[in-house]
């Protein structure tokens, strides 16, 4: 008699082959009810779970959203990818890099053609993209993003924002603006939460007029310039601006300087990420440092661990406030690096 196939288990449970694979390998990405139904179907049919023993991780596809695909111009994800590549070399893993969008035929373009053993996804990806990747049954690790119960490697975005705003407040700032991108991005939402939590913790009422969402139809330079114009036009302009990342912070600095606003004498500016250009601006940018290459390394190691049968995990890496010349911040014992 022929052994029971994974397709028969999928048909019995009413799910995809990928879902059966995830359930039998005890990988995340399924509800408890679906997992239990699949295991019951496998048991009823007499499926030999030993046939799904993990094989070594040999081929990994690293995916970026197409908006981040120009790595030479993306000083955040280029370092994440470098870290992942370094870990892949150490483990003898071949890593390929692709940019994707929701309309791409992922199965034909990547899964069938490159036959990966796992996926490493850096940054925001739409739900439909992640759902299709989960359905393949291959292990999947997220970096700088969070979705359902998938294993993920993130920085302490909320804690970092809380620290930055608290240091500004301790140094006498009260009207602190936040310029940000779309809150559908996990890291941006967490930074917003940290910003608001710090204001609340220090007894400063939040002001919706100081929270500016960038216009996504424009480039970062133009969108940041309009945000600065909007803030400076307020009856009481902000004393400090917290930008959701360094690219936005540097564009905000240039926009202020073109308008004759002195930094940090008239307004303090803090960014997030500590990209290479942050230390080279005039004045140098105060920011929050993330271990970008470390995120990539840990993401690849996590993927290798899952393939080897180890439990999936979520990792939150600490961030560090780097105090430079763009913000009036008094030294204290709250931590941080003077640069």
From TrEMBL:
- Can you name one GO molecular function term for this protein? transcription cis-regulatory region binding
Task: List the CDD domains hit by this protein, alphabetically.
Answer: HTH_LacI, PBP1_LacI_sugar_binding-like
Kindly state which keywords UniProt assigns to this record, in alphabetical order. DNA-binding, Transcription, Transcription regulation
Tell whether Transcription is among the UniProt keywords: yes
Domain annotation HTH lacI-type: ranges: 4-59
Provide an example Pfam family for this protein.
Peripla_BP_3
Q: Which InterPro entries match?
A: HTH_LacI (IPR000843), LacI/GalR-like_sensor (IPR046335), Lambda_DNA-bd_dom_sf (IPR010982), Peripla_BP_I (IPR028082)
Keyword check for Transcription, yes or no: yes
Protein's UniProt name: DNA-binding LacI/PurR family transcriptional regulator
């Amino acid at each position: 008699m022929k052994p029971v196939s994974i397709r028969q288990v999928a048909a019995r449970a009413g799910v995809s082959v990928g879902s059966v694979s995830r359930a039998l390998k005890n990988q995340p990405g399924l509800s408890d009810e679906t997992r239990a139904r699949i295991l019951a179907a496998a048991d009823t049919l007499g499926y030999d779970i030993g046939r799904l023993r993990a094989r070594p991780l040999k081929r990994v596809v690293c995916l970026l959203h197409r908006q981040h695909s120009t790595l030479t111009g993306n000083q955040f994800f280029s370092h994440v990818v470098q870290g992942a590549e370094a870990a892949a070399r150490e483990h003898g893993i071949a890593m390929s890099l692709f940019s994707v969008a929701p309309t791409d035929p992922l199965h034909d373009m990547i899964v069938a053609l490159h036959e990966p053993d796992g996926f490493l996804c850096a940054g925001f990806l739409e739900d439909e993209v992640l759902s299709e990747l989960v359905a393949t049954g291959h292990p999947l690790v997220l970096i700088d993003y969070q979705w359902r119960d998938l294993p993920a490697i993130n920085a302490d975005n909320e804690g970092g924002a809380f620290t930055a705003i608290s240091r500004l407040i301790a140094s006498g700032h009260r009207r602190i603006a936040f310029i940000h991108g779309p809150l559908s991005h996990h890291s941006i939402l967490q930074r917003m939460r940290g910003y608001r939590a710090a204001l609340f913790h220090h007894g400063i009422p939040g002001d919706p007029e100081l929270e500016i969402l960038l216009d996504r139809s424009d480039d970062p330079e133009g969108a940041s310039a309009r945000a600065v114009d909007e803030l400076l036009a307020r009856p009481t302009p902000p004393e400090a601006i917290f930008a959701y990342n360094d690219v936005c912070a540097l564009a905000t600095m240039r926009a202020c300087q073109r308008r004759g606003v002195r930094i940090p004498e008239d307004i303090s500016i803090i960014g997030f990420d500590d990209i290479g250009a942050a230390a080279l601006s005039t004045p140098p940018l105060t920011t929050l440092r993330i271990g970008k290459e470390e995120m990539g390394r840990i993401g690849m190691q996590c993927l290798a661990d899952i393939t080897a049968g180890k439990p999936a995990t979520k990792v939150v890496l600490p961030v560090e406030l780097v105090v430079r010349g763009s913000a009036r911040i008094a030294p204290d014992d709250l931590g941080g690096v003077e640069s």
